[in-house]
Specification:
Elements (H helix, E strand, L loop, with lengths): L1 E7 L5 E7 L5 H19 L4 H17 L8
Antiparallel strand pairs: 1-2
Length: 73
């Protein structure tokens, strides 16, 4: 089964990716809400914008890979 997940490219554009083993849209909603907040937080902490976007992207990839193991809050 394939699901649509939105990720961000290095230039900040939204990209649609087909990903196997979907998560019924919960991750997509999480990503859309939390990615901009994470980028902002990282820039406040001192990273340059592109470095913050790259770090946030890496964090979101790891979150997606481990999504089933992350407890709901």
């Amino acid at each position: 089964m394939s699901e649509r997940v939105v990720m961000v490219s290095r230039d900040g554009d939204w990209k649609d990716l087909d990903v196997l083993q979907g998560n019924d849209g919960e991750f997509d909603a999480f990503f859309r809400q939390e990615y901009p907040r994470l980028v902002l937080r990282l820039t406040v902490e001192g990273l340059e914008l592109q470095a913050a976007k790259d770090a946030a992207q890496e964090a979101m990839v790891e979150a997606y890979r481990n999504w089933e193991e992350i407890p709901e809050t």
